[in-house]
Amino acid sequence: MFQIEIDNLNKHYGGFHALRDVNISIKQGSFVALVGPSGCGKSTLLRTLAGLEKTSSGDVRIAGQSVIGKPPRERDVAMVFQSYALYPHMDVEHNMNYSMRLKRRPKDEIAERTRTAAETLGLSRLLDRLPKALSGGQRQRVAMGRAIVRNPKVFLFDEPLSNLDAALRVHMRSEIRKLHERLNATSVYVTHDQVEAMTMADHVVVMRAGIIEQQGSPLELYDRPANKFVAGFIGSPAMNFLPATAADNGALVLDSDSVRIGFNRDIAAGRQVWIGMRPEHLSLKPGVNDMTIGATVTGIESTGSMTFVVLAVASQPVVLAHAGRPEACKGDQVRLHIALDNLHFFDRETELAA
Amino acid sequence: MQGIIRTIRDGSGFDILLLGLALVYLVAFSAFPIIYNIIMSLQTVDMFTITSFKRPFVGLENYSTIFAQPIAATVLWNTVQFVVLSIVFQLSIGFGLALFFQQDFPGATYLRGLFLAGWIMPALVVGAIWKWLFAGDFGVINYVLTALGLTDDRIFWLSDPNVALYAVIIANIWLGIPFNMILLSVGLASIPRDVYEAAELDGAGPLERFRSITLPLMRAQLGAVISLGVIFTLQQFDLIAALTQGGPADSSNVAQYWSWQLSFQTYEISLGSAVSVLMILFVIIVAAAYVRSTRHEHSY
Fold first, then answer.
1. Considering CB atoms only, which of A50, A87, A132 is closest to B201?
2. CATH superfamily entry for domain A2-233
3. Nearest to B197 among A52, A98, A99 (CB)
4. Which of A191, A240, B153, B161 is 20 to 30 A from residue B202's alpha carbon, by CA?
């Protein structure tokens, strides 16, 4: 049973086509991330689910019921805003139970549910504070509390962690994930941070310019990107691309270097492609089934546990990642080993996976 | 000399210079007139003693004389009506218009700009125009009222003692609406959109959003507009001068106009001062309330 079904959804703002034929089906209890660069339409899509934006065409069903034309309050969805959008004149308790007070629930039920939610989020001692007396992380938790006391059909998150510092963001990531599992609610989460999307979601939807480029499980997107955009967007550091042309004998020739790569896929001779290589599939040490090209080390970035080596392959920048300490110095001429089993190929015109 | 120039250029001398200029200005043009006014209200001042500082001290006698005047009660009651009715209608109409123009519709900004016209015009001109509108025999208002069948007889707005005060109040309401609307529009615009969206998702309908989000978040602005409105209304002189001069038979006379009449028409200067001192006291109370209300401003 799908909790949310989006069919051929389109959204126009005047002449601007913000969402194009969007189709997503979301299972009850799953955690879906909408990810993409700014302006890709992910927030518009979320606001459309919430009922804060009107749709131009297509259908949106929540729990089997079409919600087109329904105001937000009839959709039974809760949303956590990027700015948190707390009511500045209400204390934490009243912020959290505003929705129940509007519904005129019995007093003891309101108190009980507010108390439970506050305990879940560690807000019990802050109930009488105004939002301005809270830290960013606490405000974020109040915004979540306001959503969970309602026990809605769907949770919507609009970049809820983007205003937090890095350490807190990592912490809240797992908190939100845990909360999601405990409540077993359906969640839709918008982020521009692919790491957030990959680590939190069961299902990732990558968007660009109002179009869904690809959707699937995080590792599916990582292992089998449907096009060059998804390949470059998912994964950090990003995938490296080198231009190449197919030769007639089932080999590829790098444009920059006349290195031939043995290749066992059927690509018509003369077809121009991008060769995509993940940084962790490159090595300075020889391995099994790899090929070797010459490169120059132009920079080293070490985080302690990981080392990123920036190389120039015939003036094209290529990043290599390996665990541990640097094995080369800036300026070194090195042999770059590329694991052939993990290469990706994209047509240079259509940018689709070949 | 060199030293003084140096401290003014690099040191605290510059701060003191700026502070000093402001202080001199305040003392010369605000503090001195107010204190001089208070002193006059405790003395007997008439045309013969006006040029000298040495005048007979009479204590609070001027104040008791004022309250003993037969028109004191009328003026007080008129002033209360003038202020309360002006504020209530200026505020509610101004707030209504501010909410209306907050809705996004084509031309909203231009239409809102048009409303400022009334604010730009001098009150004396506004008074002259309203005098024509209110005119008993050729005024537009009477024409419209009779044409619509709302009244059978013409109302002599400015010469009928029963309605003269209300005519002045209506003109003053019109004059005050733009100020209320603009200030409240700014307040409304400062409430983040997503707070309303959150309320909408929480299940609040339009009325509920107004009651539980807009009103409490506008508290500071409403306090400011009410306090400033009271002060402006108590300053309103030109309109009364242009429309009724407090008449007929003091039926539209209010404190500020009476104070002027006492000082500059009948030359009972000490009585005029006493009335204005009482008004200053009242305005100080209102100003204190205004300062308190600004403390409730919310940060988002």
1. A50
2. P-loop containing nucleotide triphosphate hydrolases (3.40.50.300)
3. A52
4. A191
